[in-house]
Amino acid sequence: MTPSRDPTAAGVAEAAAKVSAILPPTPLLPLEIEGQTIWCKAESLQPIGAFKIRGGWHRLTALSDEDRARGVVGVSSGNHAQGVAWAARRLGIAATIVMPVDAPAVKLANTRALGAEVVLYDRPGGEDRDEVAGRVCAERGATLVHAYGDPWVIEGQGSAGIEIARQMDALGVGGPDLIVAPCGGGGLTAGLALACPDAAVIPVEPEGWDDVCRSLASGTIQSVAADAPPTPCDSLQTMATRPINFRVLRERCPFGLVVTPAEVRAAQRLAFERLHLVIEPGGAAALAAVLAGKVDLKPRTAVVLTGGNTDAADFAAVLTGDN
Amino acid sequence: MTPSRDPTAAGVAEAAAKVSAILPPTPLLPLEIEGQTIWCKAESLQPIGAFKIRGGWHRLTALSDEDRARGVVGVSSGNHAQGVAWAARRLGIAATIVMPVDAPAVKLANTRALGAEVVLYDRPGGEDRDEVAGRVCAERGATLVHAYGDPWVIEGQGSAGIEIARQMDALGVGGPDLIVAPCGGGGLTAGLALACPDAAVIPVEPEGWDDVCRSLASGTIQSVAADAPPTPCDSLQTMATRPINFRVLRERCPFGLVVTPAEVRAAQRLAFERLHLVIEPGGAAALAAVLAGKVDLKPRTAVVLTGGNTDAADFAAVLTGDN
């Protein structure tokens, strides 16, 4: 599937208007780190527990009546699944979600609870999720809603940046000069870059899954190694970004950063203690980079906490230091 | 100390204006319970992790310059302590907080981090906290800021009700017809009753610490039994409400409800899973009553999640069912 167009700043503005018509802005919480305030965008408080509701809504509302009638297919370890399922239910569109068998149980359960049909694929066994999704689309004539390689999805995620800028303005801080965000396929980071042209944008990836970092360093799209180590950041497990994302990222992001599982856990614990938020591992990656001292903070730094969908046992182990 | 006046609805409105000038409203999150939406006020997302910042701010800003110079004293297991300390630091007032030796470590640490001097008293050993506080006040000429038996504190806490009503109005839901709130000494519930004259207000207390429930039933102020069982709800451990609170409560609350430790844990787990919020035991009491089916829900029901200050090990045990 070739996307029909590149995402634009105007598209992000349109997405922000559509999102704000149905969802109140998520809070932007101050956090003092060594005497400096950074602004944490709590996207974990979206109704589906993650920012993906933005892209799902912007994409599905842009479908023709004919396309809506044939349904949509999403591919996701969970958060994009819930974003598409939430938007589909609200619009009366049938949604099928292709999810890995090893997705967190809470994400599988929540996707089904939103009324979507879940088709599992064998990620650990090496089954190709795009192949599975393509087969479902062909069978049903449904529209594939890609998790990041889609102009509407990118624009939708970018609406978070519009909210951040508005909220910092309203607080008298002024718009962000730096946004640090977790990065899987680069949908959110590309959207933020379009939303906030005056801010530096730093994507943060988990150790071993740093394809965007390496792509930015080399100037061409790189993939995750076939023998990549396991990561607790299930929501950031993407093999490679796509040209539609990379064309934005390479213009706006000189580099990306990598965080270790221990750094991610430390960030989850800090968010628990100081912000009283449940943040999933992937959702804490950007905060982890800040806490680890890997980011040169600017006076108006925003950090996106992208999601909070994590299993109770996993989160308990993070809190007690058992994993 | 006899309070100088009763709290008023006009005082709540003034408090709401003062609070909204320095703190953005906390989110009001929808939660679907058996097909009905209830509105959860996430006071755990205040900068100190609890609603007590409201009363502290309204009380301390009302002090004369002379009184400010002599400092303030608070008595608290933690959340009121942080509320007073936060307001005092912002206003340049010296704060001394009398806290029980068995307060959650995170609350002790956070109170000290806010610059307050902490004086410990031996709660398990039966030492009287009011006596300790009176001694400190006498020594220093400081003003006692009572955790609930104070008109400004009551009005300040009531500002949460003004926010709830505004937020539900903005969502097109209409003002609340029922507010369910955790109850310790009755500062918050009295404030909510003044803030929202058209809503029923139900205070919820932990098992064994149901003095307000029994006071409402008998028509006179009752105390917690000397041999009351331990409760996980440290923030709701008050021996008795005060006349200034009870005069409001007996007019507006026909009854209160009691929740068990198991019901509280179930509510904490639901808030974790569905709202991605960290809620302390006492903060989850009202939600616990709703989940346990003890509340006759009305079409526009709001539930206050009062705080999120809980130790990591305790919260992990709640998540894994180990306590």
UniProtKB/TrEMBL annotation, chains A, B:
Q: Pfam families of this UniProt entry?
A: PALP
Q: Which InterPro entries match?
A: Ser/Thr_Dehydratase, TrpB-like_PALP, TrpB-like_PALP_sf
Q: Which Gene3D superfamilies match?
A: 3.40.50.1100
Names of the cofactor(s): pyridoxal 5'-phosphate
What residue stretches are annotated with the Tryptophan synthase beta chain-like PALP domain?
24-306
Which processes are annotated in GO (biological process)?
isoleucine biosynthetic process; L-serine catabolic process; L-threonine catabolic process
Record's keyword terms, sorted: Lyase, Pyridoxal phosphate
Q: Which domain of life is it from?
A: Bacteria
Q: Does the keyword Lyase apply?
A: yes
**What GO molecular functions are on record for this protein?**
L-serine ammonia-lyase activity; threonine deaminase activity
What family does this belong to? Belongs to the serine/threonine dehydratase family.
This chain belongs to the protein called Pyridoxal-5'-phosphate-dependent protein
